[in-house]
Design brief:
Blueprint: E1 8-9, H1 11-18, H2 22-30, E2 37-39, E3 42-46, H3 47-61
Antiparallel strand pairs: 1-3, 2-3
């Protein structure tokens, strides 16, 4: 049985999904509110991390 690799998003992908600018995405990464990793110097964010970030935000708003 194989498991699918997590979908990795670029910073512009995350910018589009969250409707925020580049600086805000890097701020979320820097403050550990958004998990990311580097692949050969390129920043990548797991799609699940973006979904978790949105869920946490919705939970705080309730």
């Amino acid at each position: 049985m194989t498991t699918a690799a997590p979908e990795l998003l670029t910073v512009p992908d995350v910018m589009a999904r969250l409707k925020v600018g580049r600086t805000k995405v890097y701020d979320l990464i820097r403050t550990n509110r958004l998990v990311s990793l580097k692949v050969d110097g390129c920043r990548r964010i797991p799609a699940e991390a973006v979904r978790d970030f949105i869920r946490r935000g919705l939970g705080e708003a309730a």
